[in-house]
Q: What sequence folds into this?
């Protein structure tokens, strides 16, 4: 640690040099951070699609489902991190708590988004599809779901950007991801400020959030070609 | 620790939470009540400052339709990792304070909390005023109301459901972030989580988690009750079912502004 302080500049702009000095560790943390941000959103979407469909199909299921997911979304992330292991009977420091907590958040957010997105599909469209001979399952996947895509991807963008920020919080309780850079910077700043790891962590988190957001946007574009066709006319 | 399974840990946590000695402060240790007070204190200060800034700004932007870029800038701030911003500000500001003061930690924490709380309130206030039906607004002008009256008596009451959901999502973020403020050696309920972790005292750590979750749920419930009485029934649509807006939909509204 001391040699590191002696050899390296503590200027905030030295963050790139700091990155080069600790490339292997930092890229490892970037990878951890990326999958911790992405996998829970995918899990959340896979769970939210049937749940959102249920909430739409059976109207009695909608209010309780929204209350429960709203309640889960209210619990602060750090509290959820420490509450999950005892509730599931896991070790208090299991690395699984972060993906589980984030999957719970993503599912809670997306159930409402999917239900409302499906609810926004015009009744005439559904009736027209039925009249054309679509059976319920095919109608859901070929008509209702594609029309709900823009609303769902808007929810996915919120979920993925929020996850990048929440994952970093897990770094402060010792789990490996870009949040460890903040932990490192704070530990190294006891006697005098040492900025590079902190600035590097912020830069990498913001870039990761922007890239993931852009990917969701591209997927949204690819899945809804008709929106571009209408716009270009 | 986990060898005993889930039940013992839950009982140990209950034991920690129900021990009266943990609730009172001693000369050496701040108890649960003291940390709860500190937590609520940080949160209230940040929310009041954020409201004073964001509410008038959102109303003005929504009413005039000018300077909407402010809303986009505020929303872009969300991509910033809060914990990173917190650590950076603490490292920058705290060396300027010496002695027995926690201002070096309090000031950066409050800055981060205010910066966090502004975007949801600002963009929801803006969206709420923007979404008032033009027919309603025109009718108000047609009745001879002045600009100020239209804003105060028509647009503001109609925007209240969205403003409340923005405030609720700001409040939850502030309570959550005030918890991680304990990481930078400040008080608050997060103290128990980080101390419990450092001392491998898991009942204390989990008990802290329970307290934070309970605070968030109770605070959200209180504001929901206030909202029920403040928002006009004609606006909230409580004559019909299923028109409530919660913080998650508010997030989408903000995203699409």
A:
């Amino acid at each position: 640690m001391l040699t590191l302080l002696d050899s390296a500049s503590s200027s905030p702009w030295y963050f790139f040099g700091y990155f080069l000095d600790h490339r292997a560790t930092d890229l490892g943390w970037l990878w951890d951070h990326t999958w911790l941000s992405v996998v829970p959103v995918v899990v959340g979407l896979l769970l939210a699609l049937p749940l959102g469909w249920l909430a739409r199909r059976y109207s009695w299921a909608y209010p309780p489902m929204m209350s429960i997911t709203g309640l889960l979304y209210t619990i602060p992330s750090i509290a959820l991190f420490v509450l999950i292991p005892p509730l599931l009977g896991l070790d208090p420091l299991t690395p699984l708590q972060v993906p589980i907590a984030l999957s719970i958040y993503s599912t809670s957010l997306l159930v409402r988004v999917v239900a409302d997105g499906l609810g926004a599909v015009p009744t005439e469209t559904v009736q027209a599809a039925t009249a054309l001979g679509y059976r319920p399952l095919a109608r859901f996947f070929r008509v209702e779901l594609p029309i709900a895509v823009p609303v769902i991807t808007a929810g996915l963008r919120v979920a993925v950007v929020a996850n990048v920020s929440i994952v970093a919080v897990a770094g402060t309780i010792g789990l490996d991801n870009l949040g460890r850079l903040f932990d490192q910077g704070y530990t190294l700043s006891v006697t005098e400020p040492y900025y590079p790891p902190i600035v590097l962590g912020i830069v990498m988190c913001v870039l990761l959030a922007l890239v993931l957001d852009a990917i969701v946007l591209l997927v949204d574009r690819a899945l809804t070609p008709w929106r571009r066709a209408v716009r270009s006319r | 620790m986990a060898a005993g399974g889930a039940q013992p840990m839950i009982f140990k946590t209950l034991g920690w939470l129900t021990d009266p000695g943990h609730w009172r402060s001693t000369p050496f240790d701040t108890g649960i009540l003291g940390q709860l007070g500190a937590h609520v204190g940080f949160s209230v200060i940040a929310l009041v400052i954020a409201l004073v800034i964001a509410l008038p700004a959102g109303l003005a932007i929504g009413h005039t339709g000018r300077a909407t870029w402010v809303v986009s800038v505020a929303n872009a701030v969300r991509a910033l990792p809060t914990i990173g911003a917190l650590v950076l500000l603490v490292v920058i500001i705290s060396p300027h304070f010496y002695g027995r003061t926690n201002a070096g930690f309090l000031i950066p924490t409050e800055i981060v909390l205010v910066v966090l709380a502004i975007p949801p309130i600002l963009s929801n206030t803006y969206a709420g005023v923007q979404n008032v039906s033009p027919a309603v607004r025109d009718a108000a002008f047609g009745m001879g109301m002045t600009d100020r009256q239209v804003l105060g008596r028509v647009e503001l009451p109609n925007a209240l459901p969205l403003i409340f959901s923005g405030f609720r999502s700001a409040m939850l973020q502030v309570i959550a972030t005030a918890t991680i403020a304990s990481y930078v050696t400040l008080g608050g309920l997060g103290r128990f989580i980080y101390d419990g972790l450092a001392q491998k005292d898991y009942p204390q750590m989990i008990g802290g988690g329970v307290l934070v979750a309970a605070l968030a749920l109770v605070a959200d419930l209180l504001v929901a009750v206030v909202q029920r009485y403040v928002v006009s029934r004609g606006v909230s649509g409580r004559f019909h079912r299923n028109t409530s807006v919660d913080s998650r939909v508010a997030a989408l509204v903000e995203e699409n502004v």
Observations:
- Chain A has one domain: 18-224.
